[in-house]
Amino acid sequence: MAAFLMNSNLSADGKITDTCADPFTREQLYEKIVELLLGKDDDEMSAMGYPQANMLIPKLCLMLSVMECLGIQDVIYRVTNGSTEGLLLC
Fold first, then answer.
1. CA dihedral of residues 11, 47, 55, 80 (deg, nearest 10)
2. Which of 24, 12, 85, 22 is nearest to 51 (CA)?
3. CB-side neighbour CA atoms (13 Å) of 44
4. Among 35, 39, 46, 56, which one is most buried in terms of CB atoms within 10 A?
5. For residue 43, what pLDDT band results from cuts at 50, 70 and 90?
6. pTM, entire model
7. Is 87 part of a structural domain of the chain?
8. 49 Cβ partners below 8 Å, 6+ apart?
């Protein structure tokens, strides 16, 4: 979800138009949350195209917390096979 949010661009009607897989930092993720999601409810986030809009904010908060606790500076998202998410720390 974080990579989806970080690399999302919105059209004039507020829907996601494209995504990519560029690296992002904790600070960039926080800024994007404020820019795109502050003040939005679940219905508005769902209309923007985010999957599981009701879980978006909790998952992003968890991501920010884990990055801070583990000292993770940058995250690079890579599409994987299957529905199980994976994490590789280097």
1. -50
2. 85
3. 10
4. 56
5. very high
6. 0.66
7. no
8. 8, 15, 16
